[in-house]
TrEMBL record:
Protein species of origin: Microlunatus antarcticus
Transmembrane stretches, start-end: 20-39, 115-134, 155-178, 198-220, 227-246, 302-320
Keywords tagged on the record: Membrane, Transmembrane, Transmembrane helix
Upper taxonomic lineage: Bacteria, Bacillati, Actinomycetota, Actinomycetes, Propionibacteriales
The name this protein goes by in its record: ABC-2 type transport system permease protein
Entry GO terms, CC: plasma membrane
GO MF annotations, alphabetized: ABC-type transporter activity
């Protein structure tokens, strides 16, 4: 056990000294700072901005009152739906839409946590992939195995170092965003609505950042190249764009697939459950349809990511134990 701890400490030093890791961390922290500047006008709007927003809201409210009844009547007459459905198609404007009042903390806080999580996940994935990819390309991995021939220890120490480094980056990025956003909202005199809910989302976001680092490490280890690891999510994006036509309709061949897609499970884990929409054609030619809302639970997403993590580690171990790294 002591030997593994020493190896992890050595790998952490090597990970920290890599230029990619340093640049990725600096970029993420810079983005966190930019987010705070970006939301300043929202969480602490000036008196003039609030007056302009109130004027725009009043104008929109008046226009809606003048045209709403006619719009609903036209909708019903043209067969657009029942009275209630047509009413829902033309809702009244709300103060929140025009930012007459600052958004509640849970809205802006969740947006901040999500933004920081995605940025840190990308940075951790890149750092984890380049960490092992560079060792393949330079030959240092083969040299290291001459000093530490126990491949399982080498795999574990490098993987643990990547996960720990990713966790630290994720925690700093996410909770710096959380704390600074809370400070801005509080200083403006607004209540910290659902503070615990946003903090819990931050904790889940850190776990996702750690998994992203592990994913980058394992994919690059199996592919033997950093570029190959980066190409995997890009290739998935292209495949996903093609498959979207086969998953959007409830009667499509791949209508069962969305609950097993990474992006939906990422959102479900981060937001403690999520919903997605599919469509069902009402007419044979598909010119009219109804929306079908479906739910992905937090438990489902948690099991999904746990399963992927275990499978990834097992595959990585099996490949690394038998591979010639010279």
């Amino acid at each position: 056990m002591t030997g593994v701890v020493r190896l992890v400490a050595t790998e952490l030093l090597r990970l920290r000294s890599r230029r990619v890791s340093i640049v990725a961390a600096v970029v993420v922290l810079a983005a966190v700072a930019l987010f705070q500047f970006g939301i300043r006008s929202e969480v602490a709007p000036s008196a003039a901005a609030q007056a302009d927003a109130a004027q725009a809201y009043a104008a929109a409210q008046q226009q809606w009152q003048e045209s709403h009844a006619a719009n609903v009547a036209d909708c019903v007459q043209q067969g657009g739906g029942t009275q209630e459905e047509c009413e829902s198609y033309d809702p009244a404007p709300t103060p929140e839409q025009y930012q007459v009042t600052p958004p509640p903390f849970d809205v802006v806080g969740q947006a901040g946590v999500t933004t920081a999580a995605y940025l840190a996940m990308f940075a951790s994935f890149l750092a984890g992939a380049s960490f092992i990819g560079a060792e393949y390309s330079t030959g240092s991995l083969a040299n290291w195995l001459t000093f530490v021939p126990q491949r399982l220890k080498v795999f574990a120490s490098k993987g643990i170092a990547v996960v720990l480094g990713s966790t630290v980056l994720g925690a700093v990025a996410v909770f710096a965003t959380f704390g600074l956003t809370a400070a801005q909202v509080s200083n403006h005199g607004e209540p910290l609505v659902r503070l615990g809910h946003v903090a819990a989302a931050g904790g889940r976001a850190v776990a996702l950042v750690a998994l992203a680092g592990l994913a980058g490490y394992v994919i690059a280890l199996v592919a033997r190249h950093t570029v190959a690891a980066i190409a995997v999510p890009l290739a998935y994006g292209l495949v996903r764009a093609v498959l979207s036509a086969f998953t959007s309709d409830v009667d499509a061949p791949l209508a069962w697939l969305p609950p097993y897609l990474p992006e939906l499970n990422l959102t479900a884990f981060l937001e403690h459950g999520t919903t997605y929409t599919q469509y069902r054609s009402v007419l044979a030619d598909g010119s009219d349809y109804t929306e079908v809302e479906k739910h992905i639970s937090f438990a489902h997403s948690g099991l999904y990511w746990l399963t992927l993590a275990v499978v990834s580690v097992v595959v990585g171990v099996l490949v690394f134990r038998r591979r010639d790294v010279t």
